[in-house]
Structure formats: structure tokens, C-alpha cells
Design a protein that fits this description.
alpha+beta, 7 helices, 3-stranded antiparallel β-sheet, single chain, 36% helix, 3-stranded mixed β-sheet
């Protein structure tokens, strides 16, 4: 295998990798990707922010070039050298249709696993692991399910692998989006009760440990001063986590104010001091009753 890498450029990492995958005819996990340039902060002009990567197939993996690939013919690898060629979309579409029917010797694409197991499967861990694997395959991520564990706030599936950094970009927006999608799917399925969480590379576990530690420090301040302390705005999962962590500390109570993701958790003395107009607790030791 040649050690020569081909460069691809896109508006973001996803677009650059998509160009590389199309050029080599391979899945992301079959590519050896090196970031050449990745702006940390986008400029005012979005078109000026470009991500450049250098790519080659992994050791032992053979590219699956298609005849007429404009990148291969041109000898270049930059996305700018690869016009979308909207005029031949129909030809590419027909080629794609033929592939899944295995025409002209083209290999059929791999079948994606079902997101959820059959309805007769009732083990919550098995359901969650199956969903996680389905999402990983659907998004073509180089990740694997390492385990499903029980946390104080519910089930958690742990992921690890090469694409963990992708999920953690931009304050872990990808990880949060994957978790949100999983909960929506499970809510419609109806076999799992309560929320689940997804962690990647131990990121969420470490962040939650810091959150609980901060909450306990504020609780200690409340016990010492008798004054209410407020946590930053958090989602329902994080608020439930803090509620549970502080539930066994005598002398304090927790309640939330606000709405949506601007909802804030308050840590207050168990007995309201005179003049305290804080609202009635909206949480039980098991979580927030209003959500």
C-alpha cells in the first residue's frame, strides 16, 4: 500500500471526510485520517473556514474506486477540484440503484442493523446496547459499545473508539445529540422507562463527577451560611443527578425554577428562613416531578 496521502477540504470535518469516503469507496473506519488544518474559531465569512485532512486507506484495506471518479481521474484530492457535477446526478443515482441490486458485478452495500431488537426482547441493557450499535452503524462512526451500566440516574451505555473526539467537539454537542436521539427513539418504543445516557471515552462520567462535587461544595456553604445557592442552567438529566447526590444530606433541600434548558437548580436550607419566598419544591429524591 502506498504511503501517499490524498488531501480533502470541506467546510467542516464531516464534509471533508465524506469527500474522502467517496473518493476511496470506503467506510470511515477503513481510512487513516490526519488533520492538516482545522480552524478553531470560524470567521465572519463562513465560506472562508475550511478543514483540510490528509487521508489514505488503512493497512490491508484496498480502495474501491469507481470508474469515472473525478478525483481519481484528475489526480487531485482537494474538494475544490471536485465539482459536484449536478448534471450527472441521475447517472450516479442509477449507479447507486444498481449497486443494491448487485448489478454489473457491483458489490451490495452492507446492511445496517436494526435500531431496536424485536419486541419480545425486554432486557433493558440489551435494548439499549442494540440501539447504540444501530446508531453507530447508521452514522458510520468508528465506535463500539463497551458496556451498559446502571448509574444513580438510570442506564448508561459506554462507547469507545477512534471517533470519540468527533462526538466531543464543540462542548460534546455530538454526544448530546446522540443521547437526545436515543431517548426520543426509546420513548416512542415504550419498553424502557426513564431517561438513558450515553458516554464516550469517559467524558460524561468525568463531567458529572465535577458537577456533583460542585453541588456538594455549595450544599456545605448553605449549611454554614443558611443562604440559598444556585447552580447554572442545566438539563433535566443533570438536575436529577444533583437532586439524587444531595438527597441524603440533612439540612438542605433542592428545587428548580425556570423552564426548559434554562431551568436552574437551587440548594437551600431545609427549613425556610423568615422572608424566604422560594417556590415549593418541584423535586422528590427520585427526580423532578414536573418533568
Amino acid at each position: 500500500m502506498s504511503d501517499e496521502r490524498v488531501q480533502f477540504t470541506g467546510r467542516d470535518m464531516t464534509e471533508a471526510v465524506a469527500a474522502a469516503r467517496k473518493h476511496f469507496g470506503l467506510r470511515r473506519q477503513d481510512l487513516d485520517i490526519e488533520i492538516v488544518e482545522q480552524p478553531k474559531v470560524g470567521p465572519v465569512d463562513p465560506g472562508a473556514a475550511r478543514v483540510t485532512i490528509a487521508v489514505r486507506p488503512r493497512e490491508g484495506v484496498t480502495p474501491n474506486f469507481e470508474a469515472g471518479d473525478p478525483v481519481r481521474q484528475g489526480g487531485g484530492g482537494r474538494r475544490g477540484d471536485r465539482a459536484d457535477r449536478r448534471g450527472d446526478r441521475g447517472e450516479r443515482r442509477e449507479r447507486g440503484r444498481g449497486r443494491h441490486r448487485d448489478r454489473d458485478g457491483d458489490a451490495a452495500p452492507p446492511e445496517l442493523p436494526a435500531l431496536l431488537p424485536p419486541q419480545d426482547v425486554t432486557d433493558p441493557r440489551e435494548i439499549l446496547a442494540s440501539l447504540a450499535r444501530g446508531l453507530i452503524a447508521g452514522f458510520d462512526l468508528a465506535l463500539e459499545v463497551t458496556e451498559v451500566v446502571e448509574t444513580p440516574a438510570g442506564l448508561r451505555v459506554k462507547l469507545d473508539g477512534e471517533d470519540v473526539p468527533l462526538l466531543l467537539e464543540e462542548n460534546a454537542e455530538g454526544l448530546d445529540a446522540l443521547q437526545y436521539l436515543a431517548n426520543r427513539i426509546l420513548q416512542k418504543d415504550g419498553r424502557l422507562e426513564g431517561r438513558v445516557s450515553i458516554d464516550a471515552g469517559g467524558h460524561r462520567e468525568a463531567a458529572e463527577a465535577r458537577l456533583v462535587e460542585k453541588a456538594k461544595r455549595l450544599a456545605q456553604e448553605v449549611l454554614e451560611t443558611g443562604r440559598t445557592r444556585k447552580m447554572p442552567p442545566m438539563g433535566p438529566y443533570e438536575r436529577r443527578l444533583v437532586h439524587l447526590a444531595l438527597a441524603e444530606i440533612e439540612g438542605i433541600r433542592t428545587f428548580s425554577t425556570g423552564s426548559g434548558y434554562q431551568r436552574r437548580l437551587h440548594i437551600a436550607p431545609a427549613r425556610k428562613p423568615k422572608g424566604d419566598v422560594s417556590p415549593t419544591d418541584d423535586a422528590t429524591p427520585g427526580g423532578e416531578a414536573s418533568e
